[in-house]
Amino acid sequence: MTKSKLSTKQMLKLLLLVQEHDSQLLELEMRKDFFPGLLVKLKTQIENVKSEYAEKRERFVEVKKEIQQLEIDVDKHKDGLEKSHEKLRKVSTNKEYDAVQSEIITHNEMIAEIEDNLLTLMDEADKLEKDVSGLKKTSAQIKVENSKRIEEMTKSAGEIDSIIEKIYMERNKIADRISKRMVRRYEQIREGRQGVAIVGIVDRACGGCMQALPPQKIQDIRAGQLVVCENCGRVLVDLEELNRMSIEDS
């Protein structure tokens, strides 16, 4: 069937099909545009958890070394304290006694300070050990889950390209049967109306902006004439009638 044999109603039917294809294409393009950002997010999540695990593990190793050093230091001061007490038993002058007492005080103060630091570091080590263990499991889990999603999304992106190409070809095949003038008008309206150029009658009003329609307009629409809403500029059709008819209907 050539373009010249199609009535306005039949071309509106085809134009409605074009709009359905355009809506599918728009949705697919939006999904496709969403993929890159999500892929970055999934990869970043893997790297962030991995980095946090590495940082906590490194700090845990450092704390363990600090604890070992402090334990050596406290043992030295305890040895020094024991030797000072032995010296105290052997002093013969007040001056020697005062000097040894000063050593004992210093050792006790250092032991107390080191033991306080040890308690703080041991608490930190306990917490870090739990964090490291948890993050190790979390990192492995997120890597497996996100890697799987990344693989699926990469595959889906390729499939979407194929689907878009197929729908676009079908869309153009239908559009080729409609007058170029009507297609241009449809595309102009669609561009300015968020992708919706053709709407049906809803409760005797425009389905796009809900502007009430005069009875004569509704009759013209049902008669298959090209009618545009005076308020929003969309093409008005009788959706029930168009859905019932075939392109072969006159």
Q: If you compute it from the alpha carbons, what radius of gyration comes out, rounded to the nearest whole angstrom?
A: 41 Å
CATH class of the largest domain: Mainly Alpha
Q: Could you tell me the mean pLDDT?
A: 92
Relative helix content:
over 70%
Number of distinct helices: 5
Number of strands: 4
CATH topology of the largest domain: Helix Hairpins
In quaternary terms, these chains amount to single chain
Order of strands side by side in the largest beta sheet? 2-1-4-3
Order of helices and strands: HHHEEHEEH
When the domains are counted, the total is 2
CATH architecture of the largest domain: Orthogonal Bundle
Which sheet architecture does the biggest sheet show? Answer: 4 strands, mixed
Task: Note the overall shape.
Answer: rod-shaped
Counting helices, strands and paired strands, the structural category is mainly alpha
Overview of the molecule:
There is one protein chain. The protein has 250 residues and is mainly alpha-helical. The protein folds into two domains: 21-175, Orthogonal Bundle (Helix Hairpins); 180-244, no CATH class. Helices cover 76% and strands 5% of the residues. It contains five helices and four strands. It has a four-stranded mixed beta sheet. Strand 1 (198-202) and strand 2 (205-206) form a beta hairpin. The longest helix is centred in the middle third of the chain and has 82 residues, at 94-175. The chain is rod-shaped and about 130 Å long.
